[in-house]
UniProtKB/TrEMBL annotation:
Keyword NAD among UniProt keywords: no
Stored SMART domains: AAA
Protein name: ABC transporter ATP-binding protein
Stored PANTHER family: LINEARMYCIN RESISTANCE ATP-BINDING PROTEIN LNRL
UniProt cross-references to PROSITE patterns, sorted A to Z: ABC_TRANSPORTER_1 (PS00211), ABC_TRANSPORTER_2 (PS50893)
GO terms, molecular function: ATP binding; ATP hydrolysis activity
Record flagged with keyword Nucleotide-binding: yes
Alphabetized InterPro entries for the sequence: AAA+_ATPase, ABC_transporter-like_ATP-bd, ABC_transporter-like_CS, P-loop_NTPase
Domain ABC transporter: 9-241
Amino acid sequence: MGVADQYAVEVNNLNFRYQENSGVNFNGLNLKIPKGERFGLFGPNGAGKTTLMSLMTGLLTAQSGDVSLLGQSIPGKGKQVNKLFGFVPQDFSFYQELTPAENLEFFGAWSGLSKIQTRQRTDELLQILGLADVRNKQVQQFSGGMKRRVNLAIGVIHQPKVLFLDEPTVGVDVQTRHAIINYLLQLNAEGTTLVYTSHQLSEAEDLCNDIALFDQGTIIARGDLQSLMNDHQQESLEGLFLNLTGKNFRD
Ligand SMILES: Nc1ncnc2c1ncn2[C@@H]1O[C@H](COP(=O)(O)OP(=O)(O)OP(=O)(O)O)[C@@H](O)[C@H]1O
């Protein structure tokens, strides 16, 4: 393994601000996520988590600096690089009027899978995520938890090596949260690097072995849960979070 590709994600000296000059400001941001990690990005509303995800996946382009995924620079290599990663966005990315099976067929083809591969993955994912019984119903009739599971299935249809997830458990019940976290742990055990954001601090414990606290476009603390709490003499992640980011509302 070369030095360059030991990282799933490498963000180098990234400078970014929105055109309107509003919102968050990244000044020379650096972030390296080793392969195989379960990396969680936690921070208050407006900290810039979604913006950073968008920069890491090439949806937004920085004014300067660069991002590499598994040693390959983005953007620039188009589809070749895109197949390496999957993205589960915060907003639903599927077609509401289609069934989950039709959505997966569409996104499977879009990711370059053959018809047979798409069919196999569709059956497998609908089974794993508890959607097999509703495979032929329109997604618009689904509960919030079922829609979250469809959103996740779409992001992993092509078995990406790096999976970005922006609040994949927002608004779901305990059962769906449990199913999603367990499935993510399984993917990670099979070799997928996870890069994930959430407001659910308990998920840091359940899922992440590498945590970054993010605020105002800056990483203000990084480490595993225990070392973060030891370093900052806190007994809970919530305490650490409030200690480092303050108690004022951000939105
Ligand atoms: N397209 C845009 N144009 C201008 N400003 C934006 C744009 N998108 C986001 N912002 C601003 O940038 C800041 C960071 O937003 P972002 O969505 O990245 O934060 P976040 O940490 O993901 O927040 P949340 O936890 O609420 O999802 C906010 O102040 C937001 O208003």
